[in-house]
Amino acid sequence: MLRRFIAQASLPQRCRCLITRQPSADTFRRCSSSSTAATPSSQVPVGTSGEPPPDAHFSDDYTSQPSARISVDRSGLNSPPEHSHEPLADSELVKHLKSIIKFRGGPISVAEYMEEVLINPKAGFYINRDVFGAEGDFITSPEVSQMFGEMIGVWAMCLWEQMGQPKRVNLVELGPGRGTLMADLLRGASKFEKFTQSINIHMIEVSPALKKIQKTTLKCNNEDGADENNATTLTGTPVSWHLTLEEVPTGLPTIIIAHEFFDALPVHQFQKASRGWCEKMIDVGEDSKFRVVLSPQPTPATLYLLKRCRWAQTEELTKLEHVEVCPKAMDLTQTIAKRISSDSGGALIIDYGLDSIISDSLQAIRKHKFVNILDDPGSADLSAYVDFPAIKHSAEEVSEDICVYGPITQSQFLGNLGINFRVEALLQNCTDEQAESLRTGYWQLVGDGEAPFWEGPDEQTPIGMGSRYLAMAIVNKKQGTPAPFY
Ligand code: SAH
Questions:
Q1: What is the sign of the dihedral through the CA atoms of 295, 299, 303 and 304?
Q2: Among 170, 269, 382, 383, which residue's Cβ finds the most Cβ atoms within 10 Å?
Q3: In 3D, which of 214, 163, 212, 222 has the Cα closest to residue 184?
Q4: Whose CA is nearest to atom 2 of ligand 1?
Q5: Which has the closest alpha carbon to 200: 224, 173, 225, 221?
Q6: Which is nearest to 30 in space by CA: 326, 357, 384?
Q7: Is the pLDDT of residue 141 over 70?
Q8: Helix (H) or strand (E) holding 240
Q9: Is residue 213 within 6 Å of ligand 1 at its C-beta?
């Protein structure tokens, strides 16, 4: 089955340009070699120990936890604007965040901060621009190589076969970015007309700018222009856009793809203090800069912390000083599991993360470099490691009709699906430049560490995402075990 799909999948109409597929070594989104424990202190530099608390509200916390503050980018001091002694004006998003904190009468959770920074309807990071690729802030697997979307297409077709080739099926993508994965999936599957004719595509996207790009990538023809949330691809596949999964009509078998979506969901961060677990909050100090403080008493998100800790091993918990939980990921997983349970089908989640509880992974990336999470919010991507056991437990909690498989590494996932056959097929029919691009892309998707064959500039050495990214499937039990989780 897999061999047939891979061998017959349509050959590419293009090979992506080497340059745009070659992020520098430190550009790989979330591909730093740091472990989860490596990021926190660099993100939230700790203030002078013993400094008196600027805010009496949180005074207790400063004895057990030195105040944490934003690190300021002082690079501008070397070349100050002539005749100007004015501090840089706050951006609209910074003003907005400060006003929430002011009118709330106290700090906001890291999750609320993260959500505003990423998807605030006016100034959120994702909202108004294309953040991907060499010119953007980070790069993702579908942008690295067309083979990624094609292999996801193979996965989707195998599941569709296991479902008994339904005449109509919802194919949902959560957070489609530029729409590249879906376009590659459709092109790769184009020879399997029974499959392509069965699908209704549903894109879950919050960003109007990315939605526009997705329409172009999918070559959507929307001549009547009557409804900006519904269109048709040139080959006749209906595509709809929604803000949430709940908006996708029920009643059809459903295949859900979430690639690098869960990492963008807001996380709450907790820290062990002398009086127990406290939530890390974002406040504004007297110097008008953002800083991290600890909650003086339990917060509503503590319920999720308790729930998450019940799923953890005692040994896991005893060594942790920090814990991150993502209630939105847990809730979304339950929505996915219920949908798959009632309508049949399955979901594939691929993201960077761990098969264990997450300690402290929240990171900010701007223009392919790690920056402080409090630095110029809205201008850098914020993302956190995905807690795969929390997804598994959340799904199993709501339905007995589903089964969770994995996580397995991206390398195992793509390898067992047959990416080697795919790359060989593509290499038989391409130019030297395309062959180089294919080989580099292949390495980036399934390799680990630095590519051994690289002869270009050191700072552009491709780094493999093969074991840092994990794949998990949630499938209706009726379908049996999904490929390639046998
Ligand atoms: N899957 C794509 C893009 C990943 S980036 C890829 O791999 O290239 C995250 C995507 O999720 C973006 O499209 C972003 O706009 C979207 N997104 C982030 N938070 C969202 C939310 N809460 N609801 C809907 N879409 C969201």
A1: negative
A2: 269
A3: 214
A4: 177
A5: 173
A6: 384
A7: yes
A8: strand 238-242
A9: no
Q: How far is CA 184 from CA 90, 240, 310, in A?
A: 41, 18, 40
Looking at the DSSP bridge assignments, the partners of residue 230 are 240
Which atom of ligand 1 has the smallest separation from the CA of 127?
15
Pull the structure tokens for residue 160: 């569709």
The verdict on the CB of residue 266 being under 6 Å from ligand 1 is no
Q: What is the pLDDT of residues 279-338, one digit of tens each?
A: 999 999 999 999 999 999 999 999 999 999 999 988 888 889 999 999 999 999 999 999
**Ligand 1 site-directed mutation target among 206, 242, 247, 350, most atoms within 8 Å of CB:** 206
Distance 84 CA to ligand 1 centre (A): 39
- Encode pLDDT of 161-198 as tens digits: 999 999 999 999 999 999 999 999 999 999 999 999 99
CA–CA gap between residue 217 and residue 402 (Å, rounded):
33
Residues 6 or more apart whose CB falls under 8 angstroms from that of 105 comprise none
Which protein residue has the closest C-alpha to ligand 1 atom 20?
206
pLDDT digits (tens, 9 = 90+) for 183-242: 999 999 999 999 999 999 999 999 999 999 999 999 998 665 568 899 999 889 999 999
Q: Is the CB of 291 under 6 A from ligand 1?
A: no
Span 359-367, average pLDDT: 95
